[in-house]
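re: the backbone from monday

yeah here it is again, tokenized this time
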């Protein structure tokens, strides 16, 4: 294994993003490989949160309009910070709600069923919450049988041609993941959007596992809408407020879930009972913004602006390439299945490996200082993050995994997931 350590150390010495690691709180003696579930706290995010707390202390209720970043406009301010990561215009991106609420808000707004066009197209591999929300919309409209799932051929990935083939005249709305949460496959959003629009279908994407790790060009691709969380690669903290993108060509539409923060800000405090919908992305807000769950993003997103998403993407690929090379060379004999695409052009920011003892392996890794996560029924996700993981972190992760397999340490932990996995 010595050659791999030397290779990792050489890569680290040439890493143009290595200084960003110092901006994060790194657990001593641990190798954090779960940034695709919850990113680490940065010092910039911590400072931003403390600054907003200080605004409350100094200004009280005047903090809504006073201070460096008035809370009344905070969702829009952070939306402007996120816009470069989406490839959207600043008028199209907003920090608001949770991912699931934003799915309800966008899908319900765009879902205008007719007798012949009433189905919602999803995929068989998507995160359950997306499916729950879409099915809920269909149930409420009386089209419970209208959910169409594109099937995976191998149980891990999706074929672009299969998705396109399912786009018929009965489909009203499509919601797909940008990156599959298990395998890490990136879908061809540009091509899928082009084909959806040829059929007159509204199409949106869930960016939860792509934003902050993969560049996007949503406006250039003419995507209709997108939603995402901010606590994974964007390092916004547990429960951080979600994000939403809606192409400005749709801002004339009446939003489905109306609330007073979706009102025109100039008339919001007139307190009349007629909804005066905001003319930009602000219309997708519902209630009062969760200020303290927004605040860390102010600092976190500053790091992305400084590092640049293209450089982040390149290092992310180099990290996962290095991990895959080590796994292939050192772990072939242990029947570990690499599920993530080997083709780096369609691989997101994490690696998924499969094994019949995956739950036990996951717990054994944690006992040895590696923090991954388990995904049912038998997979471990490992996510080396460009801003704070090193190549030496990757080396130690695979080295420890090899030791666990050599010693069969996973047998000591059983093979059942925890309540939270």
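seq for it, each position gets an aa:
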């Amino acid at each position: 294994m010595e050659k791999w350590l030397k290779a990792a150390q050489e890569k680290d010495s040439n890493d143009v993003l290595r200084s960003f690691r110092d901006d994060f709180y790194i657990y001593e003696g641990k190798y954090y490989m779960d940034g695709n579930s919850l990113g680490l706290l940065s010092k910039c995010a911590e400072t931003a949160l403390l600054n907003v707390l200080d605004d409350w202390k100094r200004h009280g209720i005047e903090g809504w309009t006073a201070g460096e970043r008035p809370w009344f406009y905070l969702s829009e301010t952070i939306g402007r910070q996120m816009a470069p990561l989406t490839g959207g215009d600043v008028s199209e991106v907003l920090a608001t709600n949770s991912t699931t609420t934003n799915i309800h808000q966008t899908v319900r707004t765009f879902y205008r069923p007719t007798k012949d066009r009433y189905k919602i197209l999803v995929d068989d591999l998507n995160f359950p919450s997306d499916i729950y929300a879409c099915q809920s919309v269909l149930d409420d409209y009386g089209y419970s049988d209208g959910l169409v799932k594109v099937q995976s051929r191998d149980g891990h990935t999706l074929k672009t041609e299969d998705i396109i083939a399912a786009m018929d005249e009965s489909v009203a709305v499509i919601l797909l993941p940008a990156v599959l949460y298990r395998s890490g496959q990136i879908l061809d959003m540009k091509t899928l959007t082009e084909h959806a629009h040829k059929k007159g279908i509204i199409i949106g994407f869930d960016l939860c596992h792509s934003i902050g790790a993969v560049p996007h060009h949503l406006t250039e691709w003419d995507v209709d809408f997108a939603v995402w969380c901010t606590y994974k690669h964007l390092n916004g903290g547990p429960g951080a407020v979600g994000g939403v993108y809606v192409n400005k060509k749709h801002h004339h539409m009446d939003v489905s879930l109306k609330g007073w923060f979706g009102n025109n800000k100039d008339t919001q405090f007139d307190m009349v009972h007629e909804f005066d919908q905001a003319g930009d992305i602000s219309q997708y807000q519902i209630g009062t913004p969760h200020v303290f769950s927004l605040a860390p993003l102010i600092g976190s997103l500053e790091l992305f602006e400084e590092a640049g998403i293209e450089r982040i993407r390149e290092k992310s690929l180099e990290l996962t390439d290095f991990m895959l090379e080590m796994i292939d060379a050192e772990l072939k004999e242990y029947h570990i299945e690499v599920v993530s695409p080997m083709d780096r052009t369609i691989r997101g920011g994490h690696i998924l490996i499969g094994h019949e003892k995956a739950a036990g392996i996951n717990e054994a890794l944690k006992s040895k200082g590696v923090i991954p996560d388990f995904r049912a029924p038998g997979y471990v996700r490992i996510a080396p993050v460009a801003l704070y993981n090193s190549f030496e972190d990757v080396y130690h992760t695979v080295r420890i995994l090899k030791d666990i397999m050599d010693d069969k340490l996973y047998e000591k932990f059983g093979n059942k997931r925890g309540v939270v996995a």
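The chain has a mean pLDDT of 97. The CA atoms of residues 161 and 191 lie 10 Å apart.
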